[in-house]
Design brief:
Layout lengths: L5 E10 L2 E11 L4 E5 L6 H8 L5 E8 L2 E2 L5 H6 L2 E4 L11 H6 L11 H7 L1 H5 L10 H13 L5 E5 L7 H16 L3 E5 L3 H7 L2 E6 L2 E7 L3 H12 L2
Parallel strand pairs: 3-8, 3-9, 6-7, 7-8
Antiparallel strand pairs: 1-2, 1-4, 4-5, 9-10
């Protein structure tokens, strides 16, 4: 079996005195779309932030393309080809769409060009000179994803990209994610919307109380649906 693109082993994370992640183990192969499922507070977002070095106190192993990241700062990790799209989106209110889009530096060749981005998200082309504060929640999410696509990153960490969005926008985000996967991007996705996750993901890890408690393949979804609903409380 080829070495996974991302391999997390024995990952622990702390917020001050609070021990949040307890020995998380997960793998993501090149070109895979893997989803972290779990209730609020399970540790999903902390896992993503730990991978990209945004948690000050993290211990264990995070390897990308076989290179250990655990001692590296976040700006160095980003330049290795990992991009994080936060749940809060991080749109700069004082900048327009074009300025927000062009803000991150290109870190590798092969980033998506503006024509391709506008084909994925035509709303952004129409709102190119609109201030960040004038965008709807869906448009902000499109911009947050688009912004990392032009950097050349190949591993995308997406945190709750459908949170609070209308069904028509969720469908558009899903189509975008599907196209990114078809283009060879590797995606680690945190998602509360189980129906959405089942439409796009290859595999699922379930988190509870800062631990991975189950791994479910796409082929086992129907057989394991009752288990998943119990984990998520739906």
């Amino acid at each position: 079996m080829p070495e996974p693109l991302l391999k997390v082993a024995g990952l622990n994370a702390f917020y001050g005195e609070s021990h949040v992640l307890h020995g998380v183990d997960l793998e993501v192969g090149a070109g895979e779309l893997v989803t972290l499922l779990g209730r609020n507070g399970a540790g999903k977002t902390t896992t993503l932030k730990s991978v990209v070095g945004m948690i000050a106190d993290r211990r264990g192993s995070v390897a990308y393309q076989g290179h250990e990241l655990i001692e590296l700062p976040s700006h160095v990790i980003a330049r290795l080809g990992l991009a994080f799209c936060p749940e809060e989106r991080g749109i700069f209110a004082s900048l327009d769409v074009g300025e927000n889009l062009m803000l991150p530096p290109e870190i590798a060749p092969g980033g998506m060009g503006l024509d391709d981005i506008f084909r994925l998200f035509p709303n952004l082309k129409e709102r190119l000179r609109s201030q960040g504060t004038k965008l709807s929640g869906g448009e902000q999410q499109m911009l947050a994803i688009a912004r990392i696509l032009r950097t050349g990153a190949r591993l995308l960490l997406l945190d709750e990209p459908t949170e609070g969005l209308a069904p028509v926008i969720i469908e558009q985000i899903g189509a975008c994610i599907g196209e990114l996967k078809a283009k060879g991007f590797t995606i680690l996705l945190v998602e509360q919307n189980f129906r959405f996750a089942t439409e796009v993901a290859d595999r699922f890890y379930v988190m509870e109380n800062g631990r991975i408690v189950d791994e479910i393949g796409r082929a086992d979804l129907d057989r394991r649906r009752t288990d998943i609903e119990a984990y998520l409380g739906v």
